[in-house]
């Protein structure tokens, strides 16, 4: 088991709430808190009563499980002083239980024949071992012998003792080339988990006094924890106690030529490895990390399918035994306790086949095979073969996809329990091509940037001098394609990508949401926190957002400019000791009648008592001759630590020319120590609506968008009292259509009460009366 640094007690209040999860029905639960539990094994008395022998931290516990709804601990063997341990393992032979622990106590031998009365003793070896045996990790009992693994004797290999007299074991031999963590014995062969050597060993123990090592085999995670043999003896299943390591299925029919047949992870939490694997009727019962008990159908070892799962606690489902006559599974969870489950063993529905290129016939590897409507997804091997399946039966669509090939879907495929369904596929290669053109005159646009995304695949392309682009690295399907170039409005739409060429239109103008790098420049003197184009990683100062954790919602993709983006703590990459400036490329406004500039910005400053005046965000416009500040954000600016949409009539500040440029600067006074962050997103130039400056920032309020369709945002630009603040919307004759109270500096106004398009008036007032009025335009 993994090293545990602190013992925590799991609260399993909901353990009995979910009675069944995928072919496992919880029948009973027994809580051992505050003590942990480890190994478990079964015992049946002469009257047919079923028992679980549980290796608890402070005792060996014997539980009557004949009626799982009424679990009773009928007896226990307490640990000696100083011998409590998280590691306590047990097996049974005849009417005796044999338990070992990392805490000491040798082998605890318990006579179970008179339950609920028990007698017990501690066996520390005999005269041959000088009674030096004290601790061990695990134990096995079979065919009149006990096999003790990871003991304090010798190298910690396998100590073998004869239990012809069950009460008085006699040492007979030792397999001790290397430490053995656990082992499985059938007939005269020991399959030994040599965890630190990263392998299992095959050991002939037909002569117990002289074990002979026959072979070794590395396991998938090179940290072999336990092994178990199939009923046929052809396959050995192995576990490795490392995160993100699979169970291995090995063909061991020829120990001189052992072959790895397949590997398999749990479905729900694949990074959490199986701890102990057990086998019954070609099903694998897998107590696992992540507190998962799973069952896999292993009738086809090259295609093992999970058919049941249950979450038992919050760390490790340690052990399980499925070998009671009732077929109930008894299970331990380290901090959860003891469980009894009724399993429903059903054969999986297997889906297998091969995928090749339709022209060359070459096998295609790395083809994604999905059973639509389930979480089942696999990829073809180097040979082009694939193997997957589901628990139970049903009808599904099966999808095959690979970069450079047309996606193929087989509809309404019937999958039946215990049946292998074969689908062999010939995939057709294709190259995706397209052209970026002006949406008005259809002239090609050179060097436009094309970003292609479907959530799992992202690809960036650049059109050539004729506006053309191509790639053979995509599978066909629906993608979001974003087109951008400075001087054109960034746009994103969903398209079907296949062999048919696409024409992507772009509208001239200026709208940049930073989906691509379209030429903005960063200059800085700061030590940390320079502007960077990135998907923002949020930070908190107390409960206040310092760095944003998302960009604005009304644009393409998730990128914006932020000041520093390590995403660790608020003061780890904020603006420090200097100025960082983000500057746009030049833009030409000579074709606009009355241009407006809009953007979203973010500003945060630590709420210190005396913030430096220099800890400020400045946004400036230049026309190549002069410049003007259009916005300043400081400590007292409303709506700090949020994305704020702004819009300004450019002519109110500066004369529009062909050489316009925007700059966004944030400065931190050297040595001041204030936390300082900023963000900038969705830069746009638009034409005036022709209204009386409804969005002029010299006014108290800003309306966006205007014109609007169903709702708009009202932003109060100056810090004022909101007591009794209210808006009224009037029609052009002055009749009130609706009113709404305002409690924040930013409010969303739903205009479902406005039945028709046209011009309206918005009146802002407080408890003293009228403050300001602007015009609104509602349109589709």
List the helices and strands and how they pair.
Elements (H helix, E strand, L loop, with lengths): L23 E7 L6 E8 L5 E7 L2 E6 L7 E7 L9 E6 L2 E6 L5 E5 L7 E5 L14 E5 L2 E5 L8 E5 L7 E6 L6 E5 L2 E6 L4 E6 L7 E7 L5 E6 L5 E6 L6 E5 L7 E6 L13 E3 L2 E6 L3 E6 L7 E7 L5 E5 L7 E5 L3 E7 L4 E10 L10 E4 L5 E3 L5 E7 L2 E8 L6 E8 L4 E3 L2 E3 L4 E7 L10 E5 L4 E5 L5 E4 L5 E8 L6 E7 L4 E5 L3 E3 L8 E4 L6 E4 L5 E2 L2 E2 L14 E4 L14 E6 L11 E11 L10 E7 L4 E7 L10 E6 L11 E8 L7 E12 L13 E4 L6 E6 L9 E6 L4 E6 L4 E5 L7 E9 L2 E10 L2
Parallel strand pairs: 29-35, 29-36, 37-43
Antiparallel strand pairs: 1-28, 2-3, 3-4, 4-5, 6-7, 7-8, 8-9, 10-11, 11-12, 12-13, 14-15, 15-16, 16-17, 18-19, 19-20, 20-21, 22-23, 23-24, 24-25, 26-27, 27-28, 29-32, 30-31, 30-33, 33-34, 37-40, 38-39, 38-41, 41-42, 44-56, 45-50, 46-49, 47-48, 49-56, 50-55, 51-54, 51-56, 52-53, 52-55, 57-58, ...
Describe the structure in your own words.
With 780 residues, the protein is an all-beta fold. 0% of the residues lie in helices and 48% in strands. The chain has no helices and 63 strands. The strands form 16 sheets. Strands 44, 46, 49, 51, 54 and 56 form a six-stranded antiparallel sheet that branches. Mean pLDDT is 90; it is low at 1-20 and 690-697.
- What is the count of helical runs? 0
**Biggest beta sheet summary:** 6 strands, antiparallel
Unreliable stretches covering 5 or more consecutive residues: 1-20, 690-697
Distance between the termini: 65 Å
Radius of gyration: 36 Å
Task: Please tell me the overall pLDDT.
Answer: 90
SS content category: mainly beta
Helix percent band:
under 10%
DSSP summary, beta strand count = 63
Note the overall shape: elongated
Strand residues, percent:
over 45%
């Amino acid at each position: 088991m993994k090293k545990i640094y602190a013992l925590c007690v799991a609260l399993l209040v909901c353990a009995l709430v979910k009675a069944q999860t995928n072919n496992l029905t919880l029948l009973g639960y027994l809580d051992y808190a505050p003590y942990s539990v480890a190994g478990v094994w079964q015992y049946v008395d002469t009257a047919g009563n079923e028992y679980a022998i549980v290796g608890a931290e402070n005792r060996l516990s014997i539980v009557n499980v004949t009626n799982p709804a009424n679990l009773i601990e009928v007896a226990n063997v307490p640990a000696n002083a100083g011998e409590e341990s998280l590691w306590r393992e047990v097996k049974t032979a005849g009417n005796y239980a044999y338990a070992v622990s990392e805490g000491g106590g040798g082998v605890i031998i318990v006579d179970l024949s008179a339950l609920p009365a028990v007698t017990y003793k501690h066996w520390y070896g005999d005269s041959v071992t000088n009674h030096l045996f004290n601790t061990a990790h695990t134990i096995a009992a079979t065919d009149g012998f006990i096999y003790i693994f990871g003991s304090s004797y010798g190298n910690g290999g396998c100590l073998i003792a004869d239990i012809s007299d069950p009460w008085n074991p006699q040492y007979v031999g030792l397999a001790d080339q290397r430490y053995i963590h656990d082992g499985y014995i059938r007939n005269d062969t020991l399959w030994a988990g040599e965890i630190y050597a990263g392998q299992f060993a095959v050991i002939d123990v037909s002569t117990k006094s002289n074990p002979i090592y026959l072979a070794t085999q590395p396991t998938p995670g090179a940290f072999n924890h336990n092994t178990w043999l199939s009923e046929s003896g052809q396959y050995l299943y192995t576990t490795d106690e490392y995160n993100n390591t699979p169970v291995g299925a090995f063909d061991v029919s020829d120990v001189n030529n052992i072959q790895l047949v397949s590997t398999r992870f749990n479905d729900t939490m694949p990074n959490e490895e199986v701890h102990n694997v057990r086998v019954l009727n070609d099903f694998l019962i897998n107590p696992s990390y992540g507190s998962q008990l799973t069952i896999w159908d292993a009738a086809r070892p090259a295609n093992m399918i999970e058919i049941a799962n249950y979450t038992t606690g919050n760390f490790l489902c340690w052990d399980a035994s499925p070998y009671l006559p009732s077929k109930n599974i008894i299970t331990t969870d380290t901090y959860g306790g003891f469980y009894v489950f009724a399993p429903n063993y059903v054969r999986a529905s297997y889906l297998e086949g091969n995928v090749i290129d339709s022209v060359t016939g070459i096998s295609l590897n790395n083809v994604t095979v999905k059973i639509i409507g389930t979480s089942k997804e696999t990829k073809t091997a180097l040979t082009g073969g694939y193997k997957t399946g589901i628990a139970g039966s049903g009808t599904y669509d099966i999808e095959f996809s690979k970069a450079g090939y047309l996606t193929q879907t087989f509809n309404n495929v019937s999958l039946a329990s215990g049946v292998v369904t074969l689908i062999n596929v010939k995939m057709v290669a294709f190259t995706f091509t397209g052209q970026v053109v002006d949406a008005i005159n259809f002239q090609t646009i050179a060097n436009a940037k094309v970003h292609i995304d479907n959530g799992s695949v992202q690809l960036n392309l650049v059109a050539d001098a004729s506006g053309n682009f191509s790639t053979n690295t995509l599978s066909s399907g629906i993608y979001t394609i974003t087109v951008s170039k400075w001087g054109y409005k960034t746009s994103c739409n969903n398209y079907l990508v296949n062999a048919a060429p696409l024409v992507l239109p772009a509208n001239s103008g200026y709208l940049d949401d930073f989906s691509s790098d379209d030429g903005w420049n960063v200059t800085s003197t700061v030590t940390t926190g320079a502007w960077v184009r990135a998907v923002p990683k949020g930070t908190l100062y107390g409960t206040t957002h310092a760095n944003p954790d998302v960009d604005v919602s009304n644009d393409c993709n998730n990128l914006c400019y932020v000041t520093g983006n390590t995403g660790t703590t608020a003061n780890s990459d904020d603006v420090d000791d200097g100025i960082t400036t983000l500057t746009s490329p030049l833009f030409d406004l000579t074709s606009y009648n009355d241009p407006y500039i809009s953007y979203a910005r973010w500003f945060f400053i630590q709420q210190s008592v005396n913030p430096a005046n220099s800890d400020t965000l400045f946004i400036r416009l230049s026309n190549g001759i002069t410049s003007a500040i259009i916005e300043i954000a400081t400590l007292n600016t409303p709506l700090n630590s949020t994305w704020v949409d702004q819009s300004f009539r450019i002519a109110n500040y500066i004369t529009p020319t062909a050489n316009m440029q925007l700059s966004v600067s944030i400065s931190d006074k050297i040595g001041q120590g204030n936390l300082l962050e900023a963000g900038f997103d969705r830069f746009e130039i638009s034409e005036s609506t022709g209204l009386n400056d409804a969005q002029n920032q010299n006014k108290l309020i800003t309306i966006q968008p205007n014109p609007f369709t169903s709702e708009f945002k009202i932003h109060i630009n100056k810090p004022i009292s909101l007591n009794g603040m209210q808006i009224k919307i009037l029609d052009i004759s002055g009749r009130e259509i609706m009113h709404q109270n305002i409690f924040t500096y930013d409010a969303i106004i739903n205009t479902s009460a406005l039945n028709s398009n046209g011009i309206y008036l918005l009146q802002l007032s407080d408890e003293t009366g009228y403050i300001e009025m602007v015009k609104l335009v509602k349109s589709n």
